[in-house]
Design brief:
Elements (H helix, E strand, L loop, with lengths): L2 H11 L2 H8 L3 H27 L9 H29 L1 H5 L4 H20 L16 H23 L4
Helix pairs in contact: 2-4, 3-4, 3-7, 6-7
Length: about 160
């Protein structure tokens, strides 16, 4: 691990936040439960949207309607998951980052976020052309597959942090 990263993790761990999370009787479990709820709000709607891109429910809802109704919930979940994730990390940052699952979680999380940026900056800009199409463009389906894989992998790697 690079020295700058180790220093940053030690700073986070030694912060008032890290102290509070380690020492307040119920703070860690409340943060953990909130983190799980944030993940549910993030991943559930995102995966539902991805499934729509792959063709599920195409006769029921357009891609734009699915995006308008599902993605704002995902954004709220993302904010909750990030805030609570940082707080949870602060309790034992150097220990958690030293686990075998940490690089996987971080890498998959970065992949998922980059995929969102590429999707919305690319193929989704022309969604009006294919929102009700029988088959979504290949780029949209690839993005959906990457998203499903990356978010699922992030969840699994996150759970493995406690066991590796």
């Amino acid at each position: 691990m690079p020295d700058w990263l180790n220093s940053l993790l030690k700073l986070l761990q030694g912060s008032a936040l890290g102290e509070a999370v380690r020492n307040a009787e119920y703070l860690y479990p409340v943060l953990e439960a909130s983190h799980i709820l944030g993940i549910a709000l993030l991943v559930g709607p995102a995966c539902t949207f991805d499934l729509r891109l792959l063709g599920f429910g195409r006769r029921v809802v357009s891609v734009t309607s699915a995006a308008r109704n599902l993605l704002p919930v995902s954004h709220v979940g993302f904010v909750i998951a990030v805030i609570t994730g940082i707080a949870l990390l602060s309790a034992q940052a150097t220990v958690v980052v030293g686990t075998g699952a940490a690089p996987w979680k971080l890498g998959l999380l970065i992949l998922a976020c980059l995929n969102v940026l590429v999707f919305h900056g690319g193929i989704y800009r022309r969604v009006h052309e294919w929102t009700d199409a029988a088959v979504t463009p290949v780029a949209a389906r690839i993005g959906a597959g990457v998203s499903l894989t990356a978010w699922t992998g992030t969840v699994f790697a996150g759970r493995l942090l406690a066991y590796t």
